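Most newcomers find our protein records easier to grasp once they have seen one. A learned vocabulary of local backbone shapes supplies the integers on the structure line. An example says more than a description, so a record of this kind follows:
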Amino acid sequence: MRHVIHGLVVSMFLLVHMVAWGAHPLITDDTGTQGQGKFQVEVTGQYDSDKETINGVSTESTGVQAATTLSYGLVETADLVLGLPYRWAKSKEDGAMIYDETGIADMSLDVKSRFFEKDRLSLAFKPGLRFAIGNAVQTATGGL
């Protein structure tokens, strides 16, 4: 009987689910750091698609982004974080290409520092810089 109840509970959780939507860049982060001399590499991906018609004008946009983030522990409570995304994006208006963008997006450099930790509570701040190294948007005619 116990196995039947467990099976029903698990089945319920598998059948009843919610969709969660996230977008890059995520603006939240936990307060955990790598520890002095330790590394972490994160690779994330995102896909967007949108079709709509407004005032008789039909637009279609698609985009893909792959981002790599490297974190390095400067000291036990502070990390240096480098982010480098790569994106592919296209947009059409009534079937005509408006833009077609592929390449490296803007790089980020952050420092995450945990300044308070007691029991189960910790606080950190994460100031950062964004470097506009990304490719310019190319229009269908090839101009900027």
Q: What stands out?
A: The two ends are 68 Å apart (CA to CA). Helices lie at 2-15. Strands lie at 39-54, 57-75, 78-93, 96-104, 107-118, 121-125, 128-131.
